Amino acid sequence: MSEQIRWGILGTGNIARKFAQGLQALEDAALVAVGSRSQESADRFGDQFQVPRRHASYEELVADPEVDVIYIATPHSLHKENMRLCLEAGKAVLCEKPFTINAREAREAIELARTRGLFLMEAMWTRYIPLMVELRRMLADGVIGPVRMITADFGYRARFNPQSRAFDPALGGGGLLDVGVYPISLASMILGTPDRIASLAEIGQTGVDEQAGMVLGYPGGELAVLHTAVRTTTPQEATIMGTDGWIRIHPRWWIPDTMTIHPAGGEPQTIQVPFTGNGYNYEAAEVHRCLRAGLLESEIMPLDETLAIMETMDRIRAQWGMKYPME
């Protein structure tokens, strides 16, 4: 790879802007191109972030020879199509979460990347935040003993708009894919893939989940108790409970810098692990590491685990009887 990794961003919405801001914290990242569905939108984004190459179509972006890797920042429902476009053009890809609408789409994207021998990763940025790195180390060291239970939530109250990303089923709306994927991914990171699921959801007038509760069970008897919402404000905290104590991550556990360890019979200890940039820089840095090492996926967010998470969310939705129009 060259001294700098050259990024293109596919999409110009809010998440694309956040990722562009994150890249500014990396000395070895260069945002060289943006692709949109209109020249006006590409130029507006390019002006904001000093992007030299501005494409009026996604096809032009993926054909740009100056781009090493593309970050996909479009709505959930477009992820599979956008990944296919990038991979068929020979580009490495970082795709915003949720990876796809369902496991079938995820499997197709992963198979294409592996067939083409190209790097692909789900942009579950929380995994790379320094506090989460420290959490994994502490759990591996047995600070609270074997983990037996997890509780985690991610919910917020969105203004109701049936055409918005949060409520339109054609865009993969609802809490599960938007923010429920965060606690499900946390449980996967710590406990693996569940073998039992019990879940209930409140399905709103547009046909998507407005709030939901999920209990995931694991082969060793471990449990993850999770909830998510787009119409209810939640604490956004996570607690990992072991045989010898528990760890609470607070506040906004999905972009954390503080956790408190409660050892059984001991005094609580609060640990702060600050981070630089806006947090998106850490997943980009992982992409850089993988590309320079010639890796086709990250061992921190491996593709098989991404697929397993999508399969878990499919199983949850099946219990609700909820399907998206494209399914």
What do these coordinates show?
With 327 residues, this protein is α/β, with parallel strands linked by helices. It has two domains: 5-123, NAD(P)-binding Rossmann-like Domain (Rossmann fold, 3-Layer(aba) Sandwich); 130-274, Dihydrodipicolinate Reductase, domain 2, CATH 3.30.360.10. Helix content is 34%, strand content 25%. The chain is built from nine helices and 14 strands. The longest helix has 18 residues, at 303-320. The chain is globular. The protein starts with a strand and ends in a 7-residue tail after the last helix. The relative contact order is 0.16. The model has no long low-confidence stretch (mean pLDDT 97).
Key words describing this protein structure:
14 strands, eight-stranded mixed beta sheet, 327 residues, Gfo/Idh/MocA-like_OxRdtase_N, six-stranded parallel beta sheet, 2 domains, alpha/beta, Rossmann fold, 9 helices, Dihydrodipicolinate Reductase, domain 2
